[in-house]
Automatic annotation (TrEMBL), chain B:
<keyword id="KW-1133">Transmembrane helix</keyword>
<dbReference type="GO" id="GO:0005886">
    <property type="term" value="C:plasma membrane"/>
</dbReference>
<comment type="similarity">
    <text>Belongs to the TRAP transporter small permease family.</text>
</comment>
<feature type="transmembrane region" description="Helical">
    <location>
        <begin position="97"/>
        <end position="122"/>
    </location>
</feature>
<feature type="transmembrane region" description="Helical">
    <location>
        <begin position="142"/>
        <end position="165"/>
    </location>
</feature>
<keyword id="KW-0812">Transmembrane</keyword>
<keyword id="KW-0472">Membrane</keyword>
<dbReference type="GO" id="GO:0022857">
    <property type="term" value="F:transmembrane transporter activity"/>
</dbReference>
<keyword id="KW-1003">Cell membrane</keyword>
UniProtKB/TrEMBL annotation, chain C:
<keyword id="KW-0472">Membrane</keyword>
<dbReference type="InterPro" id="IPR004681">
    <property type="entry name" value="TRAP_DctM"/>
</dbReference>
<feature type="transmembrane region" description="Helical">
    <location>
        <begin position="249"/>
        <end position="265"/>
    </location>
</feature>
<comment type="subunit">
    <text>The complex comprises the extracytoplasmic solute receptor protein and the two transmembrane proteins.</text>
</comment>
<feature type="transmembrane region" description="Helical">
    <location>
        <begin position="142"/>
        <end position="166"/>
    </location>
</feature>
<feature type="transmembrane region" description="Helical">
    <location>
        <begin position="178"/>
        <end position="203"/>
    </location>
</feature>
<feature type="domain" description="TRAP C4-dicarboxylate transport system permease DctM subunit">
    <location>
        <begin position="12"/>
        <end position="429"/>
    </location>
</feature>
<keyword id="KW-0813">Transport</keyword>
<comment type="similarity">
    <text>Belongs to the TRAP transporter large permease family.</text>
</comment>
């Protein structure tokens, strides 16, 4: 039996859902597969929570060989990994983490764009992870329509700030998960965009007891990658094990995210939160007000010599086949 | 003859350090202004400055690496020199050897940083990579890499000069 | 070589290099670089670690608190806020034995809430309160000792550069660390005042001094004009953070601006003085952040070596009690405190102990307070005790030797140690404001 050392890195701490599942699901699954033949055995070194890299440093850490395998949080790297924004630029399509992660992962494998981007970063793409079901709006006061968002301040992070651009006088304020609670409590913002699981974890019901069920959609944010030099030296059996388990991990994680989301809504309501569903007409009005970020995204990729438009259409087609049709047709020009 | 060349280089290096220091100092002032602007714009006019985070991060790199050469020049990098001062008093010869070793080690570390940052700068210059959120606020990476590269290079030169011209630029 | 051996050898190498006078960041970077090179037999990997650590470290948003609070502290020192608070306090305490000493502690505690470093406190109060105490017949050793001891409050009561540094290494929120520092800081101030009272009873000769004869009550108006500027700054900074209205970075910027306005209104700021403050701020920021950067290279080296994993495993397999770990931790900090500055101690010991503390489910905020207080005892102990050095330099009085300063500070270092033990035993003291 050959022993192969693998340093796994993530800048997030081991209590984060996807990290915990890497330890409890991914690693045992790989070990079990390899144990069947007994040819190889992995010697895992799990270094999480900033012990080697910070959350933003995983991409570079895997690139430079500080870690052999890494969980890259792709939303930090819009410039190096533009195609990863595929779900973020198509809001109001699907709030099913399983469907979105499967579709993104298949796009990554059928089109060269995502793998090329990682190849440039000296790493091999394994699978996509989706850890949140959908962004929702959490408010201090009860709101029922998009009009209620006009002239208000909404905390968000990353690409979702752009969803507010068409709402009259609404200002997107940048925040992070850890300070949304304070931002709402102090009146710094009127609403915050986050997903139910995070809302439950950070006790948002205490300060923002009204959730507007907008269902902006699930977004991919985690990608498991392997350092390319390390990959080259791996025996085929290990490569196959990693690839297969990565797909299982993808589905396992998305399933967990959905279970957690359902529990979190219940917890939010139990803690005094009230959920109001946004009407279909209102959702339509909102999504139509957003600039055409999907086309912007596709054209940017086209310019880089990738097939952005085709990717976008194929991605939405996959979701459609799975029964998820968007409120707005993002493929239209 | 060499000595006068060294002194010439030393003069130039010192002037660059001081200039960088002045620019870095102005960035400190800029930082105070920008963050206050963001706080007021957000609180009073409902229009936060969406690039505040990136600008603050950028400023931090500018402050640290523009001021670092001057810190090296005036010998203010953190150290515990009680033993060394004692040796200077009692056995100056040993102290001189230690000074030589310290400056050499410092120059080596600084030049390793140059070695690490140079390809990084070239890569960012060619790829025009940025950080931040497209459509919200973005800033290019290359100036950051360039500042760190330049700063480390200048620090390398300053430490080498401290070896060549003992006491030049003042070890204290 | 096992990770634990690498960790141990690297610490010894770093301490040796620092002891012969190598710049601390250079020692940390060099030892880390060589360790990885030897461990993995891979020069490029070492260079890559440098690359990642150097790029990352300064880019941290929360680090903007360092220049901002440094700037604020320097500005308010120039605006004489420290001496004003001292004058008000001393009218209150004058009639008690050791009263000026108590006033110094009280003024330091208040001033600490608007300055981020002990150095500012030490230099301000060495100039203001030591001459007053000498004039009133206090024992010189006691006089300088009080100033040295209470200057430590500057870095425990928020804002504090050390709490910021810890929050970076341990990945805790700066705001949480600031809130956690309030109660322990006040506790230490009260302990000092109690100790002075006790010393006055038990060792009246060590304290010296006579009750003030020129006692005059300060008019309310003057009290107001001397305290309001500081109180308003405290309200802006700590109030802003506590209510969540501002991030610590924003509170630092707002405090800087407010401090500047106060200084200008009081006409205590010239353009030249302003420029000096800016340059000093830049120098201090560059020095601290370069040190932090180097320390992050070191802690990542330990991570790459697998030391945290090994230590974690070792802990689960052995039956060390928390008590033993903490005793060892405090002793290590006291030892390092003899020759290292506070920031370096925090940056060196925290990455080593975090993997031991975290799995035990203990609060990392509490651990941070313990670390900062423990590391700051070193400010008062020879041979390298920064606060004592600063006081000696600020006094510029040949009658008081450095030895006097250290001996005078010793009882206060002992009080700190007692408070530290209480803080270790009762984590709730640090966490009460957070819950
Ligand atoms: Na303070
Ligand atoms: Na000391």
């Amino acid at each position: 039996t050959d022993t192969i050392k693998a340093v796994v890195i993530d800048g997030y701490p081991s209590r984060a859902l996807w990290v915990k599942e890497f330890t409890n699901f991914f690693i045992p699954a790989v070990d079990a597969r390899l144990a069947k033949t007994g040819n190889y055995k992995m010697d895992w070194q799990e270094s999480y929570g900033g012990s080697i890299v910070k959350p933003k440093g995983v991409l570079e850490g895997v690139k430079l060989g500080l870690g052999d395998i890494g969980i890259v949080t792709t939303i930090f790297h819009s410039s190096k990994l533009p195609s990863q924004a595929i779900a973020a630029v198509t809001p109001f399509v699907s709030s099913d983490a399983r469907a979105v992660s499967k579709a993104v992962d298949e796009i990554a494998k059928e089109f060269p764009a995502m793998q090329n981007e990682f190849k440039k970063q000296n790493q091999v793409y394994l699978a996509t992870g989706v850890v949140l079901d959908t962004y929702q709006i959490f408010s201090k006061k009860e709101i029922t329509s998009v009009k209620d968002l006009e002239g208000s301040k909404v905390a968000g992070a990353g690409m979702n700030l752009r969803y507010l651009e068409g709402i009259k006088d609404a200002a997107g304020v940048r925040g992070g998960l850890t300070n949304f609670y304070n931002m709402v409590q102090t009146g710094l913002v009127d609403h915050a965009m986050l997903w139910p699981e995070a809302a439950a974890t950070f006790k948002m019901a205490e300060v923002a007891p009204f959730m507007l069920d907008v269902s902006l959609g699930a977004v991919n944010s985690k990608t498991v990658t392997v350092n390319a030099d390390y990959w080259k030296k791996l025996p085929d059996e290990v490569k196959t094990a990693l690839q297969t388990v990565a797909v299982d991990y993808r589905d396992h994680l998305a399933g967990l995210a959905m279970d957690r989301a359902a529990e979190s809504i219940k917890a939010y309501e139990a803690a005094g939160g009230k959920v109001t569903k946004l009407s279909d007409e209102e959702r339509k009005a909102w999504v139509d007000s957003i600039p055409d970020i999907a086309t912007e995204w596709a054209e940017n990729l086209n310019k880089r010599g990738e097939d952005g438009t085709k990717m976008l259409n194929a991605y939405l087609g996959k979701l459609k086949d799975a029964g998820h049709v968007g409120v707005r047709d993002w493929t239209a020009k | 003859m060499f000595q006068s060349t060294f002194h010439g280089i030393s003069k130039i290096a010192n002037s660059i350090s001081k200039l960088a220091n002045v620019i870095g100092t102005l960035v400190v002032l800029g930082l105070v202004i920008i963050i206050n602007y963001d706080v007021f714009a957000r609180g009073l006019f409902n229009s936060p400055f969406r690039g505040a985070v990136e600008v603050v991060q950028f400023s931090m790199v500018l402050i640290v690496f523009l001021q670092l050469p001057d810190v090296v020049r005036v010998g203010r990098l953190t150290r515990s020199d009680g033993m060394l001062l004692l040796l200077e008093h009692k056995v100056p010869k040993v102290a001189r050897v230690i000074h030589f070793f310290i400056n050499l080690l410092s120059a080596a570390v600084m030049s390793l940083i140059v070695l690490a940052m140079f390809p990084e700068f070239i890569e960012m210059w060619e790829s025009k990579d940025y950080f931040g959120i497209p459509g919200v606020f973005t800033a290019p990476w290359w100036p950051i890499k360039l500042i760190i590269l330049g700063s480390a290079a200048l620090c390398t030169v300053l430490f080498i000069l401290k070896i060549l011209i003992p006491k030049a630029g003042g070890s204290k | 070589m096992s990770p634990i051996e690498i960790g141990a050898i690297s610490v010894v190498a770093i301490v040796l290099l620092i002891y012969i006078g190598v710049y601390i960041p250079i020692a940390l970077a060099a030892v880390s670089f060589v360790s990885i090179w030897l461990m993995r037999d891979n020069f490029d990997l070492s260079v890559n670690l440098l690359k990642v650590a150097i790029g990352d470290s300064a880019m941290e948003y929360a680090f903007a608190t360092i220049p901002l609070f440094t700037f604020m502290g320097l500005i308010v020192s120039k605006a004489r806020l420290g001496s004003d608070i001292y004058e008000v306090m001393s009218t209150g305490f004058r009639r008690v034995k050791g009263g000026i000493g108590m006033a110094t502690v009280g003024a330091n505690a208040v001033f600490a809430a608007v300055t981020g470093s002990s150095i500012a406190s030490a230099s301000v109060f060495a100039k203001v309160s030591v001459p007053q105490m000498l004039k009133n017949g206090y024992n010189p050793r006691f006089a300088v000792g009080v100033v040295a001891g209470s200057s430590v409050l500057g870095m425990i009561i928020p804002p504090s550069a050390m709490l910021i540094i810890y929050s970076f290494v341990a990945e805790q929120s700066v705001g949480d660390m600031f809130l956690a520092g309030v109660v322990p800081g006040i506790m230490l101030a009260i302990a000092y005042i109690g100790a002075i009272w006790g010393m006055g009873k038990l060792f009246p000769k060590f304290v010296g001094g006579r009750p003030a004869s020129d006692y005059e009550r300060m008019p309310w108006k003057e009290i107001a004009s001397k305290t309001l500027p500081t109180l308003s700054l405290i309200t802006i900074v700590l109030g802003g953070i506590y209510t969540g209205w501002m991030t610590p970075v924003e509170a630092g910027a707002a405090g800087s601006l407010a401090g500047l306005v106060i200084a200008v209104l009081r006409r205590s700021m010239t353009l030249k003085g302003f420029w000096e403050v800016l340059i000093e701020t830049g120098h201090i920021t560059a020095t601290i952040l370069f040190l932090i950067t180097a320390a992050s290279i070191y802690s990542r080296m330990l991570g790459l070596a697998g030391l945290p994993n090994q230590l974690g495993e070792y802990m689960t397999n052995s039956d060390f009690a928390l008590f033993q770990i903490m005793v060892f931790y405090v002793l290590l900090m006291l030892f390092l405190g003899t020759l290292l500055d506070t920031a370096s101690i925090i940056l060196i010991v925290v990455p080593l102990f975090l993997p031991l503390i975290e799995p035990m489910g203990l609060s990392l905020v509490w651990f941070g307070i313990v670390t900062v207080v423990g590391a700051e005892i070193g400010l008062l102990t020879p041979p390298l005790g920064i606060s004592c050095f600063v006081i000696k330099a600020s006094l510029n009085d040949d009658r008081i030797t450095l030895k006097d300063v250290f001996l005078g500070a010793l009882p206060f270092a002992a009080v700190m140690l007692v408070v530290l033990i209480i803080l270790i035993a009762y984590p709730q003291l640090s966490l009460v404001l957070l819950n």
